[in-house]
Amino acid sequence: MDVSPGMIALARRRIAALPDADSRVRFTIADVRSDPLPGTGYDLLVTNFVLDCFTPAELAGVIDRLTAVATPSARWVVGDFGVPAGRWRPAGLITLAGMYAFFRIVTGISASSLVNPSPLLTARGWVATGEATWLAGFLCSRLWIAAPESGRAPST
Predict the structure, then answer these.
(1) What pLDDT, on a 0 to 100 scale, did the predictor assign at position 149?
(2) In the chain, where do the E strands start and end?
(3) Higher pLDDT residue, 22 or 64?
(4) Three-class SS of residue 53?
(5) What's the pLDDT band for 25 if we cut at 50, 70, 90?
(6) By the 8 A CB rule, do 76 and 47 touch?
(7) Residues in domain Methyltransferase (predicted)?
(8) What is the per-residue pLDDT across 102-133, written as a single tens digit (0 to 9) for each?
(9) Could you tell me which of 96, 95, 3 has the C-alpha nearest to residue 52?
(10) pLDDT of residue 26
(11) What is the C-alpha R_g of the chain?
């Protein structure tokens, strides 16, 4: 799901050669904040460079909406920007500020700064189980699964 028809077209081209891609992948042009989500029962959510586009209030709503359509055993891959560590922190902060200014003008995103989704995911019963970072933490990918005590975990 993406709000951009161009991004959907690009994704369709990229998976075209995969066996049964047409029957296994569903594309929807929609705004995750407000449009009806296409069904329920998702066992994998992937939000690469999505969650960083929202204000804190919008992000909480997006995470609630996506959590509601996920299965109890779903996995969620979150790939986004982060604030670099150590000596790269100042350069990272300047780069992020420039990126947010650019994307607010060009695409109209509502966010004006990076919001860490981790506390919101944790509060909704997700647990980070893996992480990979690049460029001193400027790029980060995390795998989230349901916490057993959250009631989201599958029964055994």
Answers:
(1) 63
(2) 42-48, 70-81, 126-134, 139-146
(3) 64
(4) helix
(5) confident
(6) yes
(7) 1-72
(8) 999 998 999 999 999 999 999 999 999 999 99
(9) 96
(10) 84
(11) 16
Q: Extract the tokens encoding 27.
A: 């594309």
User: Residue 55: exposed, middle, or buried by beta-carbon count in 10 A (0-12, 13-18, 19+)?
Assistant: middle
Neighbours of 79 (CB within 10 A): 16
Domain ranges of the chain: 1-30, 42-150
Measured in degrees and rounded to the nearest 5, phi and psi for residue 74 equal -65, 155
Number of residues in the chain: 156
Is the distance from CB of 144 to CB of 44 less than 8 angstroms? no
CA distances in angstroms from 4 to 16, 17, 31, 50, 84, listed in the order given: 19, 22, 9, 12, 29
Q: Residue 124 in contact with residue 64, Cβ under 8 Å?
A: yes
In the predicted model, is pLDDT for residue 9 greater than 80?
Answer: yes
Q: Residue with structure tokens 């989500």?
A: 37
C-beta of residue 66 within 8 angstroms of C-beta of residue 32: yes
CATH 3.40.50.150 fits domain 42-150:
yes
Average pLDDT on 126-142 reads: 97
Secondary structure of 126-149 as H, E, C letters: EEEEEEEEEHHHCEEEEEEEECHH
